[in-house]
Design a protein that fits this description.
By secondary structure, this protein is α/β, with parallel strands linked by helices. β1, α2 and β2 form a beta-alpha-beta unit. The radius of gyration is 15 Å and the shape is globular. The N and C termini lie far apart (about 35 Å).
């Protein structure tokens, strides 16, 4: 709730809200007004299992949140190949779980993620 967000923002310098499911840009503006500066845009595992993939509707939402003033992290079904979809978008952080932990060689997967991020966004 907005009162909870305001209370948290008074106590903690960086508060994130994780977005999945239904939300509106009007709500997002309320979060900004409440002092929330970071948002995590989450492509849900259920959506991914249902055959949805990262696409233009997601990228549009991420861009709009960034334009509103959020530092936006993205998560959900990310792999090295999906990173290129975000080229030219000022993503704050990429959060991956199974993209690394479920890989045959997790260490190499982490290195591959890092190399692709550096290739696209520089150091």
């Amino acid at each position: 709730t907005i009162p909870t967000m305001k209370a948290a923002a008074k106590e903690i310098s960086e508060v994130q809200v994780e977005l999945y499911g239904d939300w509106t840009y009007e709500q997002a503006q309320q979060w900004l007004d409440a002092g929330i500066s970071q948002a995590i845009y989450h492509q849900s595992r259920d959506a991914l299992l249902a055959g949805e993939t990262w696409g233009e509707k997601d990228l549009t939402k991420v861009k709009k949140l960034i334009d509103m003033g959020f530092r936006v992290s993205v998560t959900g079904g990310l792999n090295v190949d999906t990173l290129k979809l975000f080229e030219g978008i000022n993503v704050y952080t990429f959060i991956t779980g199974r993209g690394i932990t479920a890989a045959e060689n997790p260490r190499q997967a982490a290195l591959d993620f890092m190399a692709e991020i550096k290739r696209i966004w520089g150091e």
